[in-house]
Amino acid sequence: MPKLGLLRLPLWLTYVFLYLPILVVVILSFNDSESLFVWKGFSLRWYPELFADSAVMAGLRNTVIVATTATVLATVLGTLMAVGIHRYTKGGLVRAFAIAPALLPDLLLGIGILSVFSLLGLTLGLHSVIMAHTVFAMAFVTAIVLARLAHLDPSLEEASRDLGATASRTFFRVTLPQLAPGIVAGALLAFTLSLDEFVIAFFTSAPTTPTLPITIYSMVRFGVTPEINALATVLLLVSVVTVIGAQRLTRTTDTTRTTDTTEAP
Amino acid sequence: MNTPTPTPAAPLLQVRAMNHSYGDVVALAGIDLEIADNEFFALLGPSGCGKTTLLRSIAGFETPTSGEILLDGADLTAMPAHKRPVNMMFQSYALFPHMTVEANVAYGLESEGVGKAEVKRRVAETLDTVGLASFAKRRPAKLSGGQRQRVALARAIIKRPRLLLLDEPLSALDRKVRAEMQLELKRLQHEVGMTFVVVTHDQEEAMSMADRVAVLNRGSLEQLDTPEGLYSRPATRFVADFIGTANLLDGTVTTDGFAAPGWPLLAVVSALPVGAAGTAVLRPEDVAIVAEGAGLVDGVVVDAFFLGGSSTLSIEVPGLGRPVTATVHAASTARRGDRVGLRIDQSRVVVVPDDRGPVASAVSEKAAVPSSAQAAS
User: Fold this and answer.
1) Is A237 exposed, middle or buried (0-12, 13-18, 19+ CB in 10 A)?
2) Are B139 and A160 an interchain contact pair (Cβ–Cβ within 8 Å)?
3) Most buried of A5, B99, B149, B318 (most Cβ within 10 A)?
4) What CATH number is given to the structural domain containing B188?
C-alpha cells in the first residue's frame, strides 16, 4: 500500500465528522450531572434510572414487538416475493413496483397507510405499525434476495427435480439454503430499519402504544436529559451487536460454500 | 412360418415426430429416433442445432410442441421431470454447493425415500466406482474440475436410471483431463450397464465415444449412424462437412459418373438421378500424391503440415475454388511449391445431394470476395 501521509487527513476528518457525535453521546451518558452539557464526573446513575423509567420501557417493549414481528413477516413475504418474481416474471415493471416502497419517502408511506386505515375504519395500535413496517421492510428483503437469485445457477433447481425431488423439497433443500445469506442480510436490514423508524411509526401508531423513537421524541421535547444519552448508548450497543452477529452468520454460511476446509478422514 | 420369430427387443427410448418451437423459432422439426438398451448414443451438432432442447425434452425440462417420447414403450411426454426414470448430468455439473460430496450423491436416493443404511451403502459404492471415496466429506468448491465432474456423474448414476443424459459432459475440462474422462465414461458405461445419451458439439468426442451418433442441424436430424458410417457414408453435405475433414466437390450426376468443374469425370456410383446437383465427398486419406502427370489431376503444393504420424498437404488445382486436402503417412516428401499429381481412390468417393439451397449462393458470394479484393488491389 502506498504511503499517503498527510493525504490521509481527509479520511480522518470524515471519520471525526461521522463518529464524533456518537462518541459525545456515549461519553455524556456517563456524566454525573443533571445538565446535558456540563461534565461533573463519571457516573453510571443514568443507566438504572433508564431501566426504571416506565415510559421508556413501554416504548422499548413496543419497538421490540414491532421490529421482530415485522422482520419475520417481511422476511418470509419478501423472500417468497423475490422467488416468485424471479421465476415467473420477465419485465422490469413488476420488479420495480416490488422494490419501490424502499425508495418512496417515508412520509408518503406513513400518510398513505394512515389514510387507508381510517378509510377502512380500522383502529390504530401496534398491529398497524407492524403492517406498515412490514410493507417497507419487505421491499428491502425482496431487493436483496432478488440480487442473490440473479447469481444462482438455474440448473441447481433442475438437478434437484431431475434427482426426483418434488417442488417443495427442491425449494427447502436447494433454493432456500442457496438464498440464506441474502435472506439473513435482508432480515437484519429489516430489523434495524424498523428499530429506529420514526416517521411511519409516528403516523400509524396509537397514542397509547408509542414505539421507542416516538417515546424518545416526546422526552426530547421537554429537554434532553442524560438519560436519553444512556438510552442512545444502549441502542448503539444493540445495533452493533446485531450487525456483527449477522455478519458472522452470513460469513460462516458463505465460507462453508466456498472455503470449507473439512478434510476427508 | 411355423415357429413365431422372436420379436426384436423393443428400443429403450423412442422419439416420435417431435417438434419444438419457442414462439416463431423452430428448435426441433420432425425428430424421429430410437435408442437401444445399453447403447452409448450421441447427439451431435453445432450450437443452436436443437440437441440440447432434445435432451432437455427427454429429461422433462421442456415440453415438446408436438410428438411423443416413449421409454420402454410408455409415454413420458406428460410425466414431470422428477418422476422420470431418467437422470441428467448438467453441463455446469450443478452440484449443490452447500452440501458435501456425500450429500450431493445421496440426494437422489433420499428424495426417493430410500432407507438410511441403504443410502449410505450405495453412496459409498458409487463414490468408489468413480474413484472419489476419499473425498466424501469435501464440498464441491474444494474439488478440481475433473473431480467435480465425477461427483456429478456419481450423483446421476446412483439411482440407476434407465437412461443417463449427459449435456456436454467434457466441455468444462481442459484437454488432458478431457481425454482421460472420455475413456472413463466409456469404461463406466460398460461397468454400470446403462444407456448413455451424450450431447456434444465436438465431433471427435462423439465419434470416439458413441456407438451411434445422431447428427442434428437446424432442428432436423441429418443422419443417424455409427461413427464409421457417418464418416464413410455421409448422407448429406452437412454431415460430410461436419464429420472429419472432407474435400467437397460440387457438381452434377451424369450417366457414367460425376462431373465436377475442374475435374475429369469421376467414375463413382451414386443413388442420385442423372442430372441432379450433387457433392462428391473426398476424404483426405483417399487422395494420394504421385508424380506430376501420373494422377487424375495436377496441382501445386501450397501448404504442408507434418503432424508426427502423418502429414497434411494442401494442393491447389487450377480451376478449383478451394485447395484439395490430402493426408499422407509419415513425413511428406513433397514440399511447398512442388508440382504433383493427385490420384484418387474413386471407389471410396461418396456423392451426396447438394442440398445447400440458398446457402449455396451465400457461400459462393463469400468465396468471391477475396478474388474481387485481389482484383481491386
Assistant:
1) exposed
2) no
3) B149
4) 3.40.50.300
CB contact under 8 Å between B98 and A161, yes or no, is no
Pairing verdict, β B40-44 and B212-217: parallel
Q: Pairing relation of β-strands B163-167 and B86-89?
A: parallel
- ipTM of the prediction: 0.80
User: Per residue in A116-157, pLDDT tens?
Assistant: 989 998 888 899 999 999 998 999 999 999 999 998 999 999
Q: Are both B127 and B210 inside the same structural domain?
A: yes
- Judge contact between A239 and A192, C-beta under 8 A: yes
* pTM, entire model: 0.79
**Å between A192 CA and nearest CA of chain B:** 28
Label residues B140-163 b or e (16+ Cβ within 10 Å = b).
Answer: bebbeebbbbbbbbbbbbbbebbb
Q: Does the residue B354 lie in any domain?
A: yes
Average of per-residue pLDDT across B261-268: 85
Quickly count: other Cβ atoms within 10 Å of residue B343's Cβ.
Answer: 17
Domain that holds residue A170: 43-254
> Nearest chain B Cα to A166, which residue?
B82
d(CA A32, CA A30): 6
Q: B303: how many CB neighbours lie within 10 A of its CB?
A: 12
Q: How confident is the model at residue B9 (pLDDT cuts 50, 70, 90)?
A: low
- Is B220 an interface residue toward A (CB < 8 Å)? no
Min Cα distance A265 → chain B (Å) is: 8
Q: With beta carbons less than 8 A apart as the criterion, state whether B174 and B144 touch.
A: no
- Chain B stretch 288-327, residues whose beta carbon is closer than 8 A to a beta carbon of chain A: none
Chain A contact present for B59, CB below 8 A: yes
The single-letter code of the amino acid at B210 is: A
Q: Does B61 touch chain A (CB under 8 A)?
A: yes
pLDDT in tens, A230-255: 988 988 898 888 888 777 766 655 54
Q: Identify the burial level of B250 via C-beta atoms within 10 angstroms of its C-beta, where 0-12 means exposed, 13-18 middle and 19 or more buried.
A: middle
E-strand ranges in chain B read 13-22, 25-35, 40-44, 66-71, 74-75, 86-89, 163-167, 195-200, 212-217, 220-225, 247-254, 257-259, 277-282, 287-290, 297-306, 310-316, 324-329, 339-344, 350-353
Q: Looking at beta carbons, which residues of chain A come within 8 Å of B87?
A: 162-163
Number of domains in chain A: 1
Q: Does A263 touch chain B (CB under 8 A)?
A: yes
Say how many CB pairs under 8 Å bridge A and B: 90
pLDDT digits (tens, 9 = 90+) for B296-319: 889 999 988 888 888 889 999 888
Q: What is the CATH number of the domain that holds B325?
A: 2.40.50.140
Q: State CA B2 to chain mean position distance.
A: 43
Pairing of strands B339-344, B350-353: unpaired
Which chain B residue is nearest to residue A154, measuring alpha carbons?
Answer: B94
- Considering CB atoms only, which of A163, A173, A263 is closest to B155? A163
CA angle A229, A231, A236 (to 5 degrees): 95
Q: Residue B112 corresponds to which cell in the numbers above?
A: 426417493
